Amino acid sequence: MDKPKDITTAYSDALVEIGRAFPNVVVLDADIPDSCLTEPFYQAFPGRAFDLGVAEQSLPTFAAGLALVGKIPFYNTFAVFAVHRGLDMLRQSVAYNRANVKIVGHAAGQSLGYAGPSHHTLEDISVLRALPTITILSPSDASEARQMVWWMAEYDGPVYLRLSRAVVPAIHSPDYRFQVGKTELLRDGNDISVFVTGDLVMLALALHDKLAAEGIGVQVVNVPTLKPLPPEEIVRHGRKTRAALTLEDHNVFGGLGSAIAEIFAEHLQKPVKRIGIPDTFTESDDCEVLRAAYGLGLEERVSTLRKLSKCQFTMR
Amino acid sequence: MIDIATKTPLDPQRDAALIRQLELDAVTARKKIVEMGYRNRIRLHYGALMSMVEIILTLYRCWLNVRPADPRWNARDRFVLSKGHGAPALYVALWMREFFEEKHFDGFRRLHSILHGHPDRHKTPGVDCCSGSLGQGFPVACGMALGAQMDVAAWRVYALMSDGECNEGSIWEAAQIASNLKLDKLKVLLDRNRKSSYGWMKGRNDVEPLGAKWRAFNWEVFECDGHDFVSITRALSDAEAVTGKPAIVLCHTTKGKGIPYIENYPTKPNILLTDDKYAECLAHLDAVEQELRNG
């Protein structure tokens, strides 16, 4: 495995790369270019990056205006504000206009653990899945994040990039190619499918290893695109196993788990167990501590998977 | 049809014929608007529509550099109707500028039409931005003006907003950013009829003093009679000359202007026109037209 690299640094480096390749790429910030690691872009391309100040609801509208006159704006702030502060602006001015705006939500999920629930983003996937025209991407490591940024610059349409703060080892081989709407089989297994997105891929891989020792085959499927999510991309994996489990640093309502359950209900009729954050505002602490406390701990999930492998869940 | 954007103030003597034509156009526009509501049996924001007639006609007949045959022409001036509920008045102006044929009014607000309830850039030729959620068109226009500034473009960005819309916090957030960024390619017109949807704003949801507020946000502010073509073009011309900061024209208007039944309507005039009232509106507009033609 390569040296671990944090996803935000990968984004920051890729932003400068696409800045060189695409003269129309513009960067917008709302007073935290330091946290979003966009400063290198300001240095590389003065006159193409603008800090609007503490004005998050103006990010989607200004970006929409720039896009409508031919720019490719990437706007940056913490995910919780990037999506929710200007949600009506995102709906009306970005999505409805189908403006070529790139929404970059930083420190998504519980990345900003210590800051508490005001800074956690556990509803963004759910909310944006319901907005027509928006593509939702969630990278699991640095390499995938970099490839997504390139794809975003090339694609004409609004895209949300959900960035975790996590420092994760490179899980992809150098020949991995991200393709929008495609899933990626990371580990094979014949008993249960684990569908996972973002840096929680690490948890899924750990689950695979732990249960392999017990003779339980866990198939790990990375879901880097949350929308569009063609059913066949899920069905072809789901067919192979008895049941599925989903993992996400997001409210259990409306996110990856819901998307997978919808597809399973319509196409496979097999049990799906959704693991995410229960419908609650959590607390302040280290991100991993919070994840473990609220349902994303390794040991607890090993036991869930053991039960699932025997299909002891009752369908209600 | 006058089809040249001169961007010069109208002169009452020199341009007397043009001014009279514009005044006749304003009557035609008002007729068309009440007809759109009446024929389709739809409630329209008649008050807000009548107050912007002269402003929108000035833009599309005398000011905006656009090509109806090539609506997405790259070097066109951009226009954003931030008060999106004014869409029917915008549609009339676009029709008069020959962006589309009159027959399209038959399908107004119906399935498969090119004319929707609020501006939709995907459907209507000449519309540059979807709008309808108040407080958003203006900031989008700011973003467009930033793009124009980056490109050192010759084209300008125009937006029409309402005074009621100034209740929206997003307006002031964007106003502050626009002056910080020195967006001098942005020229905004504000339809100042002193009423929001629910009625008079004074003592309720007051936004005045608007001039002082926009000046405090470091904008260059001009004022005009929003129902007088000469006055509007003079103010716009002054706004064009501003550099180093954005400019706004406060257009003093009357809600429901030009049709007494609507102007004097006691509550919010987004009404369904009855046969009688439609006939009454048309009779008044016919009389005004006759008076103009008699000179």
Concise synopsis of the structure shown:
The complex is a heterodimer of chains A (316) and B (295). With 316 residues, chain A is of the alpha/beta class.
Please list the strands of the largest sheet of chain A in the order they lie side by side.
Answer: 3-2-4-5-7-6-12
Determine the N-to-C terminus distance of chain B.
20 Å
Largest interface: A-B, 29 and 32 residues
**CATH fold assignment of chain B:** Rossmann fold
**How far from one another are the termini of chain A?**
42 Å
Which CATH C-level class of the largest domain in chain A is it?
Alpha Beta
Order of helices and strands of chain B: HHHEHHEHEEEHEHEHH
Question: What does the main sheet of chain A amount to?
Answer: 7 strands, mixed
Question: Could you say which overall geometry of chain A the principal axes of the C-alpha atoms support?
Answer: globular
Overall number of strands of chain B: 7
What's the main sheet of chain B like? Answer: 5 strands, parallel
Query: How many independent structural domains of chain A?
Result: 2
Mean pLDDT of chain A: 95
The total of helices of chain B stands at 10
Total helical segments of chain A: 13
Overall CATH architecture of the largest domain in chain A: 3-Layer(aba) Sandwich
* Unreliably modeled segments of chain B: none
